[in-house]
UniProtKB/TrEMBL annotation:
This is Large ribosomal subunit protein uL1. The keyword Cell cycle does not apply. It comes from Megalodesulfovibrio gigas (strain ATCC 19364 / DSM 1382 / NCIMB 9332 / VKM B-1759). One of its GO terms (molecular function) is structural constituent of ribosome. Binds directly to 23S rRNA. The L1 stalk is quite mobile in the ribosome, and is involved in E site tRNA release. The lineage of its organism: Bacteria, Pseudomonadati, Thermodesulfobacteriota, Desulfovibrionia, Desulfovibrionales. The keyword Calcium does not apply. Part of the 50S ribosomal subunit.
């Protein structure tokens, strides 16, 4: 096992690994447990009561965080014709058609998110093996294959988070920066969880939101009582 530095160990001492914290207390602890000198990201991991090996239990989607994510997002758009100007006007960093596909085949990957118009997907499919493993492949289910480029680009720039449950039924997502403070991070968490709950597959049986944990980029994890997360949603509705 890797050895942790003294800052990590000190932060970990303030957290009871056997306790399930109330969501508000847990968020405060997670923020306070920052270890690095840079502005760390706070992430959430949610264990859902689904079996992703069955297609009717896959949970996948996207949500725009009310307070953004606190970082600059470089957006690439695959389009042609009059859509090129629309993408640029919306703030896209890289815009192109066949030329952009060819550029990526040659190794260009200087962007964080990608959007494509439906008429470009046959071409974009040629670089799926490059974009897919990096989480950059446009997908209609997350709203990144669309003719409404203005909305898609602006949402990504504003802090749009795409999520997909992994093979173990765990969903990971960023909530924003430590510097946001607990209140804004909780607002972002509410938006994410509310959307995830709305996507609950009808085939999923039993408890849907089973386990929740928070952690900064370099800090220790904080286990949160899933019931308090559900109550937070009820209080926000």
């Amino acid at each position: 096992m890797p050895k942790h530095g003294k800052n990590y160990r000190k932060a970990a001492e303030a957290i009871d690994p056997l306790k399930l914290y109330d969501i508000e207390e847990g968020m405060k602890l997670a923020v306070a447990s920052r270890v690095a000198k840079f502005d760390e990201t706070v992430d959430v991991a949610m264990n859902l009561g689904v079996d992703p090996k069955y297609s009717d239990q896959m949970v996948r989607g996207a949500v725009t965080m009310p307070h953004g994510l606190g970082k600059t997002v470089r957006v690439a758009v695959f389009c042609k014709g009059d859509k090129v100007a629309e993408a640029r006007d919306a703030g896209a960093d890289i815009v192109g058609g066949d030329d952009l596909v060819d550029k990526i085949k040659e190794g260009f990957l200087e962007f964080d998110k990608a959007v494509a118009t439906p008429d470009m997907m046959a071409k974009v499919g040629q670089i799926g093996r490059i974009l897919g493993p990096r989480g950059l492949m446009p997908n209609a289910k997350t709203g990144t294959v669309t003719f409404d480029l203005a909305t898609a680009v602006r949402e990504m720039k504003a802090g749009r988070v795409e999520f997909k449950v992994d093979k173990a039924g765990v969903l990971h997502a960023p909530l924003g920066k430590v510097s946001f403070g607990p209140e804004k991070l909780l607002d972002n968490l509410k938006a994410l969880v509310d959307h995830v709950v709305r996507l609950k597959p009808s085939a999923a049986k039993g408890t849907y939101l089973k386990k929740v944990a928070l952690a900064t980029t370099m800090g220790p994890g904080v286990k949160v009582d899933a019931l308090s997360v559900r109550k937070m949603l009820e209080g926000a509705s």
